[in-house]
Amino acid sequence: MPWGVCPEHGATLKSSGGRAWCMDLACLNAWTYDRLDAACTEPATHTIQADDGDRYVVCDGHALTARTQITDGQVLPGLPT
Fold first, then answer.
1. Confidence band (pLDDT; 50, 70, 90) for 81?
2. Which of 2, 5, 21, 34 has its CA 20 to 30 A from that of 28?
3. Which three-class secondary structure string do you get for the chain?
4. How many other C-beta atoms lie within 10 A of the C-beta of residue 55?
């Protein structure tokens, strides 16, 4: 994915001054770089199966976000075979 997420909470990042942090009040994740605008470096753990047949492999944080944002398709645990 071309943007970063909190690996535990998904699309909850805020960035400023070259730093990023998770906005979830219970989360202490913070990074010394602009993770929001950087490509995701977390390991892929899920497959997003779109209605049109496209597949995307994503990390836990992106899978969490996809579950709340996609309407057509599925978020499946694991990687395609």
1. confident
2. 2
3. CCCCCECCCECCEEEECCEEEECCCCCCCEECCCHHHCCCCCCCCEEEEECCCCEEEECHHHHHHHHHHCCCEEEEECCCC
4. 12
Owner of token pair 């492999």:
57
From residue 12, give the alpha-carbon distance in Å to each of 8, 19, 24, 52.
9, 14, 7, 28
Q: Is a pLDDT exceeding 90 seen at residue 13?
A: yes
d(C-alpha 52, C-alpha 72), whole Å: 9
Measure the CA–CA gap between 38 and 26, rounded to whole angstroms. 23
CA-CA distance, 35 to 20, in Å (whole number)?
6
